[in-house]
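retry 2 of 3: previous attempt timed out while embedding inosinic acid. Reduced batch size to 1 and resubmitted. Inputs unchanged:
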Amino acid sequence: MIRYRHRIVLRAQELSEALDGLADRLKPLIGNDEVTAIPVLGGAMFFAADLVRRLPSGLVMDFIRIQTYGDATSPQQEAKPDWVPNPENVKGKHVLLMDDILDTGRTMTAARKFLLEEMGAAKVTIAVLIDKPVRRAVPINADAFAVQFDDDQFLVGFGLDYRGRFRNLPFLAALETDIDGLPMSVDVAEESAVSEESKASEASELAQ
Ligand code: IMP
Ligand code: MG
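retry 2 succeeded.
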């Protein structure tokens, strides 16, 4: 079993309060529009499910999946959706586009462009759980976010994953990374020294 060094950034209760605030800020942006809420599969699912239950009933849900490739050190390719919403849920509609995190901004830029230009959305409003502006590579802002972090930390939980894991954590944690930016695992010697108290805490759950 590998256990990762991490610290809890936001507990479930704090996330819940942040989502209450986000819903309150979104309501006036939505008004009485016919809204289709579209989370980006799959990280946004957890956040979106909690957010839409705080918004007025009657909105339609649909989904988009879009993969972004490359990072600052590799060539960029245009991100292409490989799962698209039903056209009738988008054409002429006000789309509430949701993702877990607005990081470099490439995913949301590509998704917004696709929904407006290829699918004919009337308007796209962007809501994210986390805004991480320090890593922005393309000029895009969220219309509303639940929390903003000024530092560059690698987050997991509440939909955010490390290599596909930890999306199901009910809290948000930052993985400690080494100088290469890779998450650090707790080594065997250290692990045997971990106290019973911390084993019983949420900390012990970040294992695979
Ligand atoms: P973008 O860089 O804004 O295009 O974000 C692309 C995707 O990167 C997001 O949808 C997340 O899945 C992922 N991502 C960005 N930052 C983090 C992080 O701190 N933890 C986990 N996933 C992340
Ligand atoms: Mg994602």
